[in-house]
Protein: Phosphoribosylglycinamide formyltransferase
Amino acid sequence: KLAVVVLISGSGSNLQALIDQSLHGAIDVEIKAVISNKSDAYGLERAKSAGIPAHALSHKDFDSRDSFDNALQSLIDQYNPELVVLAGFMRILTEDFTRHYEGRMLNIHPSLLPKFKGLDTHKRAIEANEKEHGVSVHFVSAELDAGAVILQAKTNIEANDTPETLANKVHALEHKIYPLSVHWFAQKRLTFDNGKAFLDNKALPTTGI
Ligand code: GAR
Structure:
């Protein structure tokens, strides 16, 4: 099974989707550890309930971004993961950190990248009068939310949608495409070469889930 470390900052519903699918054998993944930069993240409880080592490593205990990322890297690497999965991990990462995990770190971002990088994506999509919105899984690169896209899923924005209703719709999509992307990586069907993502040696992204 693919050894994975998951990084979170909050609720951890994407973590839960990965836990559920790995426990059911739907994906060939073993979550070795969960690390949160927030000690009160509910996702840490989800990890403990599943018997997964859960760590809180607060960025507030470090005096620079570099020192936090170094400590985070040391903690992650104690578990020798083949893949690092960012699941609602709300930290900007240093270039050194992203380079260390190049081609073996995924992120999920709640927009149809390259649109709406950064925060408040649902509100911004509504305010921009977008007809469609969605979510993207991508390899992590040094530039924020700019790594090679692997898989996207779309939903319509209806006239009565609010940032909250849209977030709920997007979350449901996330829980499908993130485990699937990780599964592809576990099966070695998903690869990374020279800044680009490939599925079965064909250039990604694939859209349409
Ligand atoms: C998800 O919607 C994820 O796409 C987003 O945070 C949420 C975490 O939810 N990630 C980002 O915004 C990354 N910049 P979860 O804790 O319930 O999985």
Notes: Residues 8, 10-14, 43, 87-88, 90, 108-110, 171, 174 surround glycinamide ribonucleotide (CB under 6 Å).
